[in-house]
Write a structure and sequence with these properties.
Number of strands: 22
Shape: globular
Helix content: 25-40%
Radius of gyration: 24 Å
Amino acid sequence: MRPADTSDLWWRTAVIYCLDIETFQDSDGDGVGDIEGLCDRIDYLSELGVTCLWLMPFQPTRDLDDGYDITDFTGVDPRLGDLGGFVELLRIAHDRGIRVIMDLVVNHTSDRHPWFRSARRSRSSKHRDYYVWRDRPPRTAQKTVFPGEEDGVWEHDERTDQYYLHSFYRHQPDLNLAEPAVRAEIARVIGFWTELGVDGFRVDAVPFLIAAPGAADETDPHGFLRELRRFIGRRRAGAVLLGEVALPHEEQLAYFGTEGTELELQFDFATMQAVFLSLVRQDATPLAQTLGHRPTVDRRFGWAMFLRNHDELTLQQLDETEQTEIFEALAPDERQRVYGRGIVRRLAPMLHGDPRRIRQAYSLLFSLPGAPTLFYGEEIGMGEIPGLSDRAAVRSPMQWSASRAGGFSTARPSRVPAMPPNGYAPEHINVHDQLRDPDSLLSFIRLLIARYKSAPEIAWGELSILETGDAAVLAHACRADGVVFVAVHNFAEGARRVEIDIPDSDDDATVADLLSNAPLDLTDGRLMLDLEGYGFRWLRRVGTNARRS
């Protein structure tokens, strides 16, 4: 694909980096990361190869849910900075060629938001209909998202003697999207941030936005998403909606809409879970089957690929036996498991710090078709906080150096959040040291990003699974414009030899190894490959009729 053909679809080939300003870099020594600190680190992200920065919530908050309990949708938490600083952040990022998207959390507000404080004063409050109220909870109420932390989704308000809906925590009352004034407020919020220069939004908990009660239109649930898409398109051309839709592939299709009417990108939860099942079983079959059945979507849409994020590693699309396999292998301590469906660990310790397995996992991330997404600290192999049985375990401060507090802050130790201990402590895992080590994980991630960018067919090409004759080895191809990218991954601990067909080969075709100088034995379009345990190869065949960019 030539850049001129796809520049308006930048999200298809984006390298996305998610971070929480509060835990990235503290510039003033108060123990809290801030916008100024992030500005100082934009060059690091640029040199890493990031093209899209995803900011977790930074608005004013009670901070009972890591910022997702927002009290002012158009403000900046004063601990982190102000709107002037945020505009400067956008300017610096855009100057480095990095687009910026932010979380759009409009399923609920904090219970301290002025709307809800007004709504609960009286049943006649002008903000009463901003939320979902009932005299009595329905007998068949939906299940809570946080079993073990919440007993249900309806909370009694003593002052007005009614129950309000909270799909998440009780301190996060659901907004009533059926109320036109609420939808108008959401449009105002979106308009505000796009006017400042934000390039799009990661839409939180999308299925909850169209679920009754509280849906904008129960007869046309997806109408609200189309309304959002039209509004954003009018306000900022090229802005993206990246959706958190943790559903099977077939059910996700509806959230793309038709002809670009809803979400442009969606996280690929099904493939992520299949990756971990294959890693645990040392068998490529689960991943090959999932990729083989993944729907092909219009070129205007795409998948955001990820291994870990700021939440638990969810396994909800796997059956009970598969979940148990992964729990026992990757989260043997019950405290590492949450909600009966997920794991609160980072990738490196889950894979026992084995550099072969860690690099294989990231090779998969960047070679599977989609926009690769990193959670801050993944590129250096950060660990989690043991014993924290919630999402906070994976949200410790960024580790910049081996100095006290990992270079994150100069505040006294009592004011700095906990850091991972032992082998994952800052003196062992940090950016400073890895930047100076050509064999470090950071150097490897930078190489993967560079090679991903050099092979646009990974994102744009037609995906196919190639026969390897070995269940432990996955080979997949992405074909576009006469160019074929092939990635081969060995999920087994032992070495493997496989023979694969390179699609569309001809006598004059050249095959290059993108990650090494290992020799290639290509005969009549067939290639014999020797793979080390957990080994992988990236190959690129350019035919004589390839369309040049």
